[in-house]
Amino acid sequence: MKKGLVIDREAQMIGVYLFEDKKVYRGIPRKKIIKKTKIYAGDYVLGNVIDSETFAIESVEERKNFLVRPPVANVDKVIIVFTLKKPDFDSFLLDNLLVVYEYLGAEPVIVFNKIDLLNDDERKELKRWKDIYINAGYDFIPVSAITGEGIDTLKEHIKGNISVFAGPSGVGKSSILSALTGIELKVSQISEKTERGRHTTTGVRLYRFNENSFIGDTPGFSSVDALYFMEKREVKNYFREFLRYRCRFSNCTHTDEPGCLVKEAVKKGEISKERYENYLKIIGSSK
Ligand SMILES: Nc1nc2c(ncn2[C@@H]2O[C@H](COP(=O)(O)OP(=O)(O)OP(=O)(O)O)[C@@H](O)[C@H]2O)c(=O)[nH]1
Ligand SMILES: [Mg+2]
Ligand SMILES: [Zn+2]
Asked: Which PROSITE patterns match (predicted)?
């Protein structure tokens, strides 16, 4: 049997990339697995080539994770794209996204796009955010989809992985995808305006680049609520830098408890005030 990756998933269509053949086939699931398993983009499948265009899917490998929006399985990295301006940076949305993807088991990579637009002061401001997120333990890559600055660095970070984009509308996700893959995306491939003007996902496609790297585009979104995914008391486990501290109480929520080392670290400047305040805001206890 041969191993493939589902890179196209739309209505009845399943596009499977076979690693050995380096070719995309139309996947036809065997009856026995149709009943048991839904097949998503990002699924690794095993099966047999039937003819030059057709691949019979015999089994679907267990998923390491599954992202709902867009529906993609086995996501290694989520490229979270923001801009300092056009649109303005929203650190609350970024921190919510970091918590959610950490929870879902996909490694976040923070990308700041449109650095070609920044003047000297704004570059300093970008550097300040970069230091904050690097300090917290994240990758942070400034790029410009237009000039190509930083794109090679980003490529290195997502090499050999399945990645998807996340972030607000208009930050340049599709533009970065084009810069990475050389594929021109005229319109977002996975969202379509319905008559009511709402965006609906109609299918998912992963684009291949650099041999075995795959990346999926995503329509932008303006808000994500971490508490939709997890309990309030769990949120603290997904602020990476908090995990370096052992407070007096092991179940410390880092709000009002005595002996809270996280709060102390904020005072000392070891943990960023912005990140801590967003934490309080997420759990609903900001003043
Ligand atoms: N100056 C500048 N403009 C950019 C850059 N990247 C993208 N843009 C512009 O920003 C606008 C939005 O880019 P898109 O790639 O469509 O943004 P998106 O994140 O895919 O947006 P949605 O699909 O709505 O979520 C377009 O007008 C792009 O030309 C960049 O690096 N620099
Ligand atoms: Mg787009
Ligand atoms: Zn604490």
From this structure: ENGC_GTPASE, G_CP
Q: What is the CATH number of the domain that holds 97?
A: 3.40.50.300
Please indicate if the annotation marks 197 as binding a ligand: no
| Same domain as 246, residue 110 | no
Query: Does 9 share its domain with 52?
Result: yes
**Ligand 1: which of 111, 175, 205 to mutate, judged by most atoms within 8 Å of the beta carbon?**
175
| Residue whose CA is at the smallest distance from ligand 1 atom 15 | 172
CATH number for the domain that contains residue 8: 2.40.50.140
Distance of CA 169 from the midpoint of ligand 1 (Å): 8
Q: Is 260 annotated as a binding residue?
A: yes
pLDDT tens digits, the chain, 287 residues: what are they? 999 999 999 878 999 999 999 999 999 999 888 777 889 999 999 999 999 999 999 999 999 999 987 889 999 999 999 999 999 999 999 999 999 999 999 999 999 999 999 999 999 999 999 999 999 999 999 999 999 999 999 999 999 999 999 999 999 999 999 999 988 765 444 444 444 444 444 578 999 998 899 999 887 777 889 999 999 999 999 999 999 999 999 999 999 999 999 999 999 999 999 999 999 999 997 54
The reply to whether 178 sits in an annotated binding site is no
